[in-house]
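User: Some background: our group keeps a shared notebook of sequences we're curious about, and every so often someone picks one and asks for a predicted structure to add to the entry. Today it's my turn. The entry only has the sequence so far, pasted here. Could you supply the structure so I can complete it?
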Amino acid sequence: MVLSTRMTAKMNGSFCLFLIGMRVNHLWKIHKWLPVFLAMPKMLTELQRQPILGFMGGHFWFGRTMILLQYWRSFEDLTSYARQPDLAHLPAWTRFRAHIGDSGDVGIWHETYLIAEGQYETIYHNMPRFGLGGVGELVEAAARKPVTMRIDKQPLITRILPNLSAIGPSTG
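Assistant: Of course. Here's the predicted structure to add to the notebook entry:
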């Protein structure tokens, strides 16, 4: 359902944004890239069936370079999932290293971002639930403010310890 109201996403606490993908470098080597491609749906099904693992949702884009945007409850949840031998990721990674390795046939990549509370900004207008608005709380956006006023730019450490600058070096 498309929401015609100007909306924004609200998250309680920090979260992890994970971008992962693959690139088919040699289209004719389907026997190399197809198993890599088919490993991801198995992982996503596993993650969606077990919310306790910390995966909150995501989106997939297809092309020669494929991109999967994922939202995780925490970096710890993401890395814990990646290292568990009884779940889908670690065996898939082991197969990739054994069958593709440094051949150059298929590229894989990922980027991980740790997002502190208040350190993000979102706007959705004439959109269905999407992105952070699909995994967090979607709320009506406040009056039109410039982005510089919608995002908390104060470093996390100064929000945790507001009098840190007053401490100064020891003179003892």
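Suggested note for the entry: Confidence is low (pLDDT under 50) at residues 157-172. The first strand starts at residue 7 and ends at 10.
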